[in-house]
Each structure stands twice: as C-alpha cells, then as structure tokens.
From TrEMBL:
GO molecular function: metal ion binding
Cited InterPro entries: Cupin_2 (IPR013096), GPI/OXD (IPR051610), RmlC-like_jellyroll (IPR014710), RmlC_Cupin_sf (IPR011051)
Electron transport as UniProt keyword: no
Residues covered by the Cupin type-2 domain: 40-108
Lineage: Bacteria, Pseudomonadati, Verrucomicrobiota, Verrucomicrobiia, Verrucomicrobiales
Keywords: Metal-binding
The keyword rRNA-binding is annotated on this UniProt entry: no
The protein's name in its UniProt record: Cupin type-2 domain-containing protein
Length: 135
C-alpha cells in the first residue's frame, strides 16, 4: 500500500504538526496491525512536554534539527540520525532547542491498546521544574 502526502492525516498541535501514517483510532490511515507511525514537526522553541504512554513502547528517530530529549530525569541533545527508545510508562519529553524546525519519526507499538496515546504530566513535580533545574 502506498500513501501520498495529500492523504496523510495531519493534526496541528501547539508544538507544530503531527502527521499520522497509521493511527490507533483513524480507519482511513494505513491499516497497520500493531504499529503507530507519526512524523512530528516541532517548531523552534517548542516541544512535546513531559508525558508517558501507559502501555506502549516508543522509538523516536530524529530526522532533522536539534532536540533536547528527556527520558526520565536524564537529558541528551540529539540531532539527525539519533534514536531514543522509551519503555511503556516512562516519562519523557522532546524540545526543539535549534533555530529551525525539527522533524522526528515516532514509532509506537501496541496499536490495539485502549489507553490514551499520551498522558500529560508536565504540570506535576518533578517534571514541571526539571528543565529549569538542569540549566
């Protein structure tokens, strides 16, 4: 099956744009059996604040840009070609610290889960003050 750029499910979000190639609740995307694939564009200075996926593991592949990536309370600066693995239930966040937009591929397992895709914890401690403490 092929999917053209015009057929991709696009979702404008505060950080930028999510493009869904497969989705757990959208029948018109690619009918993958157990994978969610999202291309995320994060505008400069924006990010996907601290959150976790209850019962889904995730890979993030950096396509372009400079990302401040958190997994738990550990921080790394990532660039094109870098990969991060996030186990289910582990809090993580991605922030674009570059001057241009950043692009990532987010790959999730457990498509059949009934849980919400992401649970936001960005207003809870220690997550709400972690970035300030590390500066």
């Amino acid at each position: 099956m092929f999917i053209s750029h015009d057929d991709i499910l696009k979702d404008c979000v505060p950080m930028g744009l999510n493009e869904f190639f497969s989705h757990h609740r959208e029948a018109h995307t690619v009918p993958a059996k157990d994978v969610i694939l999202i291309r995320a564009t994060i505008e400069s200075g924006e990010g996907h604040a601290f959150h976790y996926h209850e019962d889904r593991e995730e890979f993030l592949y950096i396509l372009d840009g400079k990302i401040e990536q958190w997994v738990g309370e550990e921080k790394k600066i990532l660039s094109a070609g870098d990969v991060v693995y996030v186990p289910p239930g582990v809090v993580h966040a991605s922030f674009n610290v570059g001057d241009d937009e950043a692009k990532l591929l987010a790959i999730f397992g457990n498509l059949s889960s009934s849980a919400e895709l992401a649970v936001d914890v960005s207003e809870q401690e220690p997550w709400c003050s972690l970035r300030q403490q590390s500066s």
